[in-house]
Amino acid sequence: MREDLLIPARHGMAVRLAYGDTVTIVNESGTQVVDTWAFCADDLSHAMSMEHSRVENGRLCAREGGQYVTDRREPILYVTQDASPGVHDTIMAACDPQRYINLGCKEPHRSCSCNLHEAMIAIECPIAKTPQPLNLFMNIPIGEDMTLIQGSPLGKPGDFVTLRALRDCIVAFSACPQDITPINGHSPSAVPLIIERGNVGAGAH
Amino acid sequence: MREDLLIPARHGMAVRLAYGDTVTIVNESGTQVVDTWAFCADDLSHAMSMEHSRVENGRLCAREGGQYVTDRREPILYVTQDASPGVHDTIMAACDPQRYINLGCKEPHRSCSCNLHEAMIAIECPIAKTPQPLNLFMNIPIGEDMTLIQGSPLGKPGDFVTLRALRDCIVAFSACPQDITPINGHSPSAVPLIIERGNVGAGAH
User: Fold this and answer.
1) A152 belongs to a structural domain
2) Which of A105, A135, B117, B175 reaches 20 to 30 Å from A204, CA-CA?
3) Nearest CA in chain A to B60
4) If we measure between CA atoms, which residue out of B35, B15, B19, B16 comes closest to residue B166?
5) Is A93 domain-assigned?
6) Residue among A139, A151, A148, A153 at smallest CA distance from A189
7) How far apart are CA B92 and CA B181, in angstroms?
8) Domain count within chain A
9) DSSP A70
């Protein structure tokens, strides 16, 4: 069963996935970062963890065929397909109101952190904190001497990533509203999602 | 007022610091990683955050003269002096019992995560989660294609880092007991701490 959804530009969305369901995140513009989180359905305090995933993968982000784990090192999302350059950030915190104040914004600015909490509240699953997101399509080159560069996106329109739920979970997304730094090519855009349900076992691993 | 403490090899310790106090962490062996956390004294759920510090510093770790911030992007620890190669990890999760099971250990193994919780309980400040630590002296080179290498330490005996509290806080440490990977030179050792109190304003910034 296929379900097509659209995250409006600069907004968020949370979706319940059962074990085996997949979600495809489409980078329609080719320049849109999508902050992504996952929470176990039976315990929202048990969440996907970038710091544990980095250790388990021996890599900053997982590749096609790799997986993300929780803060208890339990598998939660499997990378079924990565039709992009495979460059995703796992080390930059989600943007939040204070980030935009620090960047000099005088007016309130939408943020990935608020998008996450809005999206979780919308499905009646409020959470206390904003975990480190999986920043899909975000390009943060690491320079010599450990410097972090706010890179422009490397992808092309229509790139996508498909993630499969390795347990019942809630997956939340934010179409990143950042338009001060170049990480979204200065033009935040909407993000199509494709959910496919009921494929348990069809290549789940 | 100076206070000399010693974290036994493979164990943890938590210390209360007032604004302006400093703690010096000594790498006596030259090969010892020290996982470091900080929690605001008035709200233990408000903690030093590596993901927010990376964004604010534009760098994987802070240099001498730089600072670490909390998950609300508020300053918490200032790097007064870094008498080491300046290579510290902020992207690898603290080791925990599951990590050692995954590494093939058949017997229980001490871990940085348990050391943190033991140390916080010892001063009657239990916490719910293990934040991403500042892994002082830990060398994790990032290879091409985003791979993470468990490097051997780069320092020499007697290297040290001095951190100054930019607010009243609890700072916790773990003398990392990892002896399966080479990150501690395969030989976990004790860690001297030097606390200096009452120097408010003496070059705090």
Assistant:
1) yes
2) A135
3) A146
4) B19
5) yes
6) A153
7) 13
8) 1
9) B
Provide, as residue numbers in chain A, all residues whose Cβ is less than 8 Å from the Cβ of B59. 145-148
Q: With beta carbons less than 8 A apart as the criterion, state whether A39 and A169 touch.
A: yes
What 8-state DSSP symbol labels residue A116?
Answer: H
Q: How far away is chain B from the Cα of A147, in angstroms, using its nearest Cα?
A: 4
Domain assignment present for B90: yes
Do residues A173 and A7 touch, judged by C-beta distance below 8 A?
Answer: yes
Count Cα neighbours of A42 within 13 Å in the Cβ-side half-sphere. 5
Which of A59, A73, A128 comes nearest B148 by C-beta?
A59
Query: Is the residue at A201 inside a domain?
Result: no
At residue A36, what are phi and psi to the nearest 5 degrees? -130, 135
The pLDDT score that the predictor gives to residue B204 is: 44
Q: What is the pTM of this model?
A: 0.95
Please compute the mean of the pLDDT values over residues A24-33 and round it to a whole number: 96
CA distance A159 to A153: 11
User: With an 8 Å Cβ cutoff, is B92 touching chain A?
Assistant: yes
Which structural domain range is residue A58 located in?
A: 2-196
> Residue A62: closest CA among chain B residues belongs to which residue?
B146
The answer on pLDDT for A68 being more than 50 is yes
List Cβ neighbours of A101 (8 Å cut-off, separation of 6 or more): none
| Of A25, A29, A41, the residue nearest A123 (C-alpha) | A41
Question: What pLDDT, on the 0 to 100 scale, is given for residue B130?
Answer: 98
Q: Phi then psi for B132, rounded to 5 degrees?
A: -55, 125
CA distances, A11 to each of A113, B23, B149 (Å): 10, 43, 36
Q: Band of the pLDDT at A153, cuts 50, 70, 90?
A: confident
pLDDT, position B59: 97
* Position A100 confidence tier, pLDDT thresholds 50, 70, 90: very high
